[in-house]
Amino acid sequence: MPSSVVMPLLKAAFKYPMQSVQFIAKFEYLDEIRDFVGDIARAGGFDTKDVYNVQLAADEAASNIIEHAYEGVKNGVLEISCGVKDGAITIVMVDYGESFDPSAIPLPDLKADLSERKIGGLGIFLMRKLMDEVHYESRRDRSNVLTMIKRRG
């Protein structure tokens, strides 16, 4: 097969259109959330390490939404959209819980003694380290939108 035919086929194999799934915002759905983003990352050509990193970032983000945005809410909904385009996976999480701006959280002091370290902030730190971009938006319709992007390689 000529290289002019092979290259477009290879590029097409690494494009995976955005898929959306709604989850009940409960910790017992974290496995399904990790599987959802992991399957798309794999289909999009990400290696094992990057698939794990994407899954971990999604797990941390979903855990924060469940624990903080939907604290005390029984049937909160978390909508997750995920897809791969141009060598990057994009994960968008939308919730309607309490708004929270992760950019307002300072970086944790990783050198501080454990007994002196402030509780919280490590999940957000991990998301920032594992992903290339992390954006948060609180919208007028009372939705909160977290977008995380990771580029291959």
3D architecture notes:
The protein has helices spanning 3-13, 30-43, 48-69, 122-130, and strands at 16-24, 77-85, 88-95, 133-138, 144-151. It is α+β, with helices and mostly antiparallel strands. The protein has one domain: Histidine kinase-like ATPase, C-terminal domain (Heat Shock Protein 90, 2-Layer Sandwich), CATH 3.30.565. Strands 1-2-3-5-4 form a 5-stranded antiparallel beta sheet, covered by helices on one side. Strand 2 (77-85) and strand 3 form a beta hairpin. Helix 2 runs antiparallel to helix 3 and helix 3 (48-69) runs antiparallel to helix 4 (122-130). The longest helix has 22 residues, at 48-69.
User: How much helicity do the residues have?
Assistant: 25-40%
Give the overall shape.
Answer: globular
Low-confidence stretches: 1-13
Query: What do we call the CATH homologous superfamily?
Result: Histidine kinase-like ATPase, C-terminal domain
Largest sheet: 5 strands, antiparallel
**Helix-strand makeup class:** alpha+beta
